[in-house]
Design goal:
The longest helix is centred in the middle third of the chain and has 15 residues, at 125-139. The protein contains 14 helices and 7 strands. 36% of the residues are buried. It has helices spanning 15-20, 65-72, 79-87, 91-99, 110-119, 125-139, 164-169, 176-188, 190-195, 201-208, 216-225, 238-249, 259-270, 274-287; strands at 2-9, 27-31, 34-39, 42-49, 52-59, 142-145, 148-151. Helices cover 48% and strands 15% of the residues. Helix 5 packs antiparallel against helix 8 (176-188). The chain has 288 residues and is α+β, with helices and mostly antiparallel strands. The chain binds a DNA duplex (13 and 12 nucleotides) through residues 22-23, 117-118, 120-128, 130-131, 168, 171-176, 178, 212-218, 221, 235-240, 282, 286.
Length: 288
DNA sequence: CCCCAGGTCGTCA
DNA sequence: TGACGACATGGG
């Protein structure tokens, strides 16, 4: 266990936009310009003043905190260019970007992202967060930072002896079996999982659908929000269907708007940047 | 009591 | 393929 602290400068890095836009579930606001959360086996407090971002925390794992944080926050990527390109699409996109201009798409651990979004199915964000927190408290690694306890998201091998009934006690509901089956898949297919990183987006999508509890929407979220990181996917949930219908399709009953119809439209309109476009639209619609 | 939530799964035509 | 209900849980 050792502590770390360092600062960076970045124009495109707003705490609220990053942590409240629905891509992650383990961050909490502790002050006006501060969030605290867990990445892998480090606890991190992020504080922003002007364009200066400070990272302070403790490391309980093997990985170098600075490298972990650079990767996690996607700091190698220049979002300015991407925004400028997307802004040209139309006025709606320009407004959505203006609202969420501080968003960065995180590179979250694949295993954690898969489990988190399996839990997200037919669920709401506060309850998803609560359930993931319980899972971590019960099975993750205990960590201490500034007088408080935190818990890492449990690695798959830490869950191998957990029964379906024990999963259900966490409040997973009908998703308990899916989580259990996913643990087993990870135990038996490590080589195959490592190869996911070499696949193209289409192949990746097909492979992820084989997981229990992973359908089209969850698969696309995993591809976009994990360290698999591809921007050429467009996850469609109730909010995205809602915003797309309001802005473009204008059907009286939005449930009659088919996913395929939205997908084709998004391909055409946003191209390979549709993942980021989706996130600006989702965040804009959910917060307004 | 109802409806809804970052949906998926099994079933049936 | 495509439609449709079931599936736990908690909040409004």
């Amino acid at each position: 266990m050792n502590e770390f602290e360092f600062s960076i400068e970045n124009d495109i890095f707003e705490l609220r936009d990053i942590f409240e836009c629905g891509q992650c579930f383990r961050w909490n606001k502790i002050a006006e310009n501060q969030y605290i959360g867990v990445i892998d086996e480090i606890v991190v407090k992020v504080e922003k003043n002007n364009n200066q971002i400070n990272f302070k925390g403790v490391n309980y794992g093997e990985k170098e905190p600075k490298e972990l944080i650079y990767k996690y926050f996607d700091l190698e990527r220049t979002y300015k260019n991407i925004q400028e390109s997307l802004q040209k699409v139309d006025e709606n996109m320009r407004i959505a970007i203006e609202y969420g201009k501080g968003i960065r798409i995180l590179n979250q651990d694949l295993w954690e992202t898969i489990i988190s979004f399996i839990i997200s199915a037919n669920n709401n964000i506060p309850r998803i967060k609560k359930t993931i927190e319980k899972l971590s408290e019960k099975y993750g690694k205990e960590m201490f930072f500034e007088g408080k306890k935190y818990y890492s998201f449990p690695k798959y091998w830490m869950l191998k002896n957990v029964s379906v009934e024990e999963f259900r006690e966490l409040g997973l509901g009908f998703r308990d079996v899916r989580v259990k089956e996913t643990v087993e898949i990870f135990e038996k297919n490590q080589e195959k999982i490592k190869e996911l990183y070499n696949l193209n987006t289409e192949e990746l999508f097909e492979e992820l659908l084989k997981f229990s509890g992973v359908g089209p929407k969850v698969a696309n979220c995993i591809i976009l929000f994990s360290d698999l990181k591809r921007f050429d996917v467009f996850p469609i949930d109730v909010w995205v269907r809602r915003v797309m219908n309001d802005l473009y399709f204008k059907k009286l009953d939005e449930k009659k708007l088919k996913d395929n119809e939205i997908q084709e439209f998004a391909d055409e309109k946003y191209g390979d940047l549709k993942g980021l476009a989706q996130q600006y639209l989702f965040y804009y619609r959910r917060e307004n």
